[in-house]
Amino acid sequence: MSKPGRNTSSSGKTSKAALDHVRNTGQGANKPAPVPPPHGYAGPGYPGPQPPYGYPQYAPGPGFQGAPGGPGQPPYNFQGYQASYGAPPLQGQPGATIWMPAPPPIPNCPPGLEYLSQIDQILIHQQIELLEVITGFETSNKYEIKNTLGQRVYFAAEENDCCTLNCCGPSRPFTMKIFDNLGQPVIELIRPLRCSCCCCFCCLQELEVHAPPGKPVGYIKQLWDPCLPKFSIQNEAQEEVLKVVGPCIVCSCCEDINFEVKSTDEKSTVGRISKQWTGFVREAFTDADNFGIQFPLDLDVKIKAVMLGACFLIDFMFFEHGHNRQQRVGVW
């Protein structure tokens, strides 16, 4: 007859040996086998969930604010990029303004006028002011000045107060600053207050052109004529260099209006200032105009700047609407 104590001791030794085997191997009978890492992960010890395909797999650069919906990243918005006026645009940025590349400095050329030495035609686009369209209150004019490639050369902004804007209308005096692609004022236009009626021989329209601001480089002065709008383009010594002659009837009706730039004897034409037709809706409900200026490529950059000023003076005299939404159709 066997003894129960021996059987119990033998069974306990067997169980202890089995437990020691499990500890040594590190695997239990019920422990699952390791799962292989998903495709594209680094293997054992790989990090947690990765962003889906299409999110940046590189370190974000300066100004990057994350992709939309990326883990732990706020949505980005390229349109929210805030840069000071005149800073070079980011290439490829939606809606970015493309500026004309800055040319090298030219001896004896006022700073900022080097751009004009490379072009023989510029386009001027007046910006539409929604507040002016909705309320009818006059606001300061702003213009984009571009080359034929659509690259912005300058940006022009009128400086004026609310009282002058709404009391004097198109005849108002103003100071207009023209900025380059660095946001520096390179041209300043100064128009004094003058009577808009050509019957006043002593109060005809004029405009001073400074480049840089504070240094006169030329003048535009209206010449008295009973039929045609005429202007004298003068250098810094107030010597006449060119003349601008407009049509007898200045009326925008489905076609461009041309002001010819002529020699001092008016026998030859050397350029043109054109008010471009922008469509019935824009012409009827806004005073935002488009202009084109043509001049010889080898013309002095100072005189080119004066012609730019002549274009703005013509815009205010003939194409800027008054409170009654009417504009002048001639010298009278």
Strand-helix topology:
Elements: H1 4-25, E1 121-126, H2 130-135, E2 142-146, E3 152-159, H3 162-168, E4 174-179, E5 185-191, E6 206-210, E7 216-223, E8 230-235, E9 240-245, E10 257-262, E11 269-276, H4 280-285, E12 290-294, H5 301-319
Antiparallel strand pairs: 1-2, 1-12, 2-3, 3-4, 4-5, 5-6, 6-7, 7-8, 8-9, 9-10, 10-11, 11-12
Summed up:
It is built from 5 helices and 12 strands.
Give the biggest beta sheet: 12 strands, antiparallel, barrel
Helix content: 10-25%
Our count of helices gives: 5
Q: In what range is the share of β-strand residues?
A: 15-25%
Enumerate the strands of the largest sheet in spatial order, edge to edge or round the barrel.
1-2-3-4-5-6-7-8-9-10-11-12
**What is the N-to-C succession of helices and strands?**
HEHEEHEEEEEEEEHEH
Q: Structural class, please?
A: alpha+beta
Number of strands: 12
Low-confidence stretches: 1-12, 50-92
- Please state the average pLDDT score: 76
Using only CA atoms, what is the Rg?
A: 37 Å
Taking the alpha carbons of the first and last residues, their distance comes to: 143 Å
Assign an overall shape.
Answer: globular
